[in-house]
């Protein structure tokens, strides 16, 4: 079936249900002031073991359903699991979630790759509010790492499009972080707190995180923060990653007020900073980029819960938000000489360039970008028919990225001076005064049609639709014209499932929509590995994803498998370009972005969990393959698609002693299917490390596997110790497409106390 046919089918189902969606409404709602809303009656009785894993309520479908019961591929990592893992940053936790690979272009970064798509194809959310911006770099970036795992109650990952529910950009998937609430004063009143200290050997990192909270009958408050210092990273085999030290700090506050037994008012503020994060994948060619980020995120929300025994109204949420990120970017160019291949300029003195020795620097550019994003969203839910057999949900939101940018250049090809700037740019990394406005509205519904008996379970259908509108504008910059485009897109989704006491067989057809972002249409210059020429005439990308899966759960067994295929129309593809008649600028290849003819991604996922007595054996694997066909018909592999990867482990847990111990492995096979730009990318095909030269016989990224041991011990939930012995075999490896190697053999220790 072609794209038009798929779109027509999904919109037909939308009209039948008068609105609906299998799009994701990630994020567990806070408990109602008096009692939590009842779970959908079609929910099966799930095992009580690992209550958090199976009972965390998310809203992938309208209403309150568990991850087991959705028509989509979704996983939840709650507070207990975050405490057990003790991640250094949020991307560190995401790498253990099924179907998620993490790209790290530089230290302090971490961008999820979901369903073979990274960067702007995976939408990041915080408490339902859009966290992603039109200015985020499309590859491995540090923005998600600004979210402190210590400040979160849970993180949820949807694999596959979420554009119906959350709009523009959610083609590959959604990462949704949920902030932690103060304790409920009706059950845990009074003053309390927590303090955690942590350190690791691979990068000699150390730091701490603390929080105080007060809980009363009508609400509560919490405030806290943390700091961590990361030193030089020792990768596998003893290799030292140059310029890999950086600092990170966070601070936060949240308050809840219950004016009556059906209303909640909440205010959240999160702040963070990341300093001295250096990008060195092009160090061999004399290029080093430093990032310094400061972020502020605030929301004010009102929620109202209906009476399930009277009327159709169930829930209303209104939120206003403000998100600001200020990024300093320093681009250093070292003196270069002709490399051994006789055509590539490489660093004249690698050690001097690594220390940013002024004698070895040829130029420096400093950029300062500030993006302020006000936003508003409204969501509501209604239950109709007996026992809410039909649940309808609708909402709308609007966000505006307002960009201020400036730049300054120092030095020249004959030397380097920091005393005074040589050139003050009228614009910075982005055109100063650029804007990106994103608005949309959606509706979706979930209908329990009938019961087909104990063997088959309930027949459930859901469907929905959304309209999105994007307006982008940017003034002309030196050598490039102004940007001014508008795009409107409609998407639909439909799902069908048989949900029984032990099984969930489902199929869904979901569409995605992604308008070009300012990073793609308005930014010119170096991105650290390439010189980009902007294309203001890019068109939106659209996708149709067909997915089918089966989940099975018994008292001591849980298994699941899913297959999917995504067809993309007008995918944005990277091709060779020229700038002022040159195919390379300052040793970096010139590229531009164009809309290709089509792209095709297909894949499969599988998971298995067995538990007996106090032991749990579990594992998961993901396979994705993608191809991009240009308008002329030439087909190439998609960019930076991960190979087969996964996790397998055996865990022992004893609740009576507070002990958890596990041995596990993270692994990936080799990836030799390379896009033409991958074959020119130093992150994938550099010969000797820091040589700056592409290996002409590059076969891609080798396969790898790590062996790890982790233990946790707690005493009466007041004191806990976590120890991780990571990469015990000291494997030297990197995730496909990353700009640096992963940590080698290491020990991590953390201690947590509560009062």
Structure description:
This protein is mainly beta and 755 residues long. It has one domain: TonB-dependent receptor, beta-barrel domain (Maltoporin, Chain A). The protein contains eight helices and 40 strands. The strands form six sheets. The protein has a 22-stranded antiparallel beta barrel. The longest helix has 15 residues, at 3-17. The radius of gyration is 25 Å and the shape is globular.
Question: What's the helix and strand layout?
Answer:
Elements: H1 3-17, H2 51-55, E1 73-78, H3 79-85, H4 90-94, E2 100-103, E3 111-114, E4 122-126, E5 129-130, E6 152-159, H5 163-166, E7 173-179, E8 190-200, E9 205-216, E10 219-230, E11 233-234, E12 240-241, E13 246-257, E14 263-279, E15 287-305, E16 313-334, E17 336-338, E18 345-347, H6 350-354, E19 361-384, E20 390-410, E21 423-425, E22 435-451, E23 458-474, E24 483-499, E25 503-514, H7 518-521, E26 525-526, E27 531-533, E28 541-554, E29 557-569, E30 572-576, E31 584-585, E32 588-595, E33 598-612, E34 615-629, E35 635-637, E36 645-654, E37 659-668, H8 682-685, E38 704-715, E39 719-726, E40 746-754
